[in-house]
Structure formats: C-alpha cells, structure tokens
Amino acid sequence: MKRGVPWLWLAILLPLQAHATQADQVKASHGWIRLLPADLPAAGYVTLDNQGSSAATLVSARSAFYASVMLHQSATDTAGGSSMRMLDRLTIPAHGEVSLAPAGFHLMLQEATHPYKPGQTIDVTLDFADGSHLRVPFMVRPANAPD
Ligand SMILES: [Cu+2]
C-alpha cells in the first residue's frame, strides 16, 4: 500500500499547479491611497509584480469603502495640461512589474460609503481577466502626503 502514496500526492498537487490563477501569480506591494478632502475622489496606488510565466490582466477593482472604483491613467498633453482617461484593462506582462503611481496609472475611488481616516488601512479587491481576485491592503495617507 505504501507504493500508492506518491501517486496520490501527484494526483492532488498537479491540478493545483496547472490551474494557478492570475491572482496567484501577482504580488501586490506598497498599496496606498491619497485621501482628498470633502467628496473629492481618492487615488489608489500599488505595485503589481507578476511572478508567473503568463500575462495577468487587471480588469476591475472594488472596495467596500467606495461605490465606484475605476482604473485610470493620467497623461500630460502637448500643451502641458494633465488629463485622465479610463482604462478597461491593465496588463502585467509575464515576469514583469507595473506600478500604479502618481502621474501614471491609478485607481480612482469615488463615492465613499464609510468614513475613514489617514493612518487606517482599507482593502481593495483587484479582479483579473480569468475571474480570480486579489485582496490588497491600502494604507490611507493625507492629501499632502509625498508621492
Ligand atoms: Cu483618475
């Protein structure tokens, strides 16, 4: 009977490896939110490191603290003005890293549903194209926090 044991382990472990999700591949770090006064939208930043051998595509984000969380990209136009546009997806290449950072990609968090303050940490859930999701803690910082 002992000979059967390694085969049993293979049967359990192989399917798990074959079905690693995009969320499993991505490590999120340095999540933080710049909280603006009144009802202004807050911006969320995080570094996403894809340790897998296939691309991971972020398709949406959500939080219990906001009714609306969108994926945005800031850009500077030729006249020197800045604008934002909404993205419907953000791809993190295999073995690559994408940073959501001031003046670039960010999460735009609107319509706060619960009061909270700088110094707290709130969770944001990132949804990937394969249906997997990753819950990431974001440290809340005040409006004047350095980039
Ligand atoms: Cu924005």
Automatic annotation (TrEMBL):
Keyword Glycoprotein: no
A Pfam family recorded for this sequence: PCuAC
InterPro entries: LpqE-like (IPR007410), Lxx211020-like (IPR058248), PCuAC_sf (IPR036182)
SUPFAM superfamilies per record: DR1885-like metal-binding protein
Gene3D superfamilies: PCu(A)C copper chaperone
Residues annotated as signal peptide: 1-20
Alphabetical keyword list: Signal
Protein name, UniProt field: Copper chaperone PCu(A)C
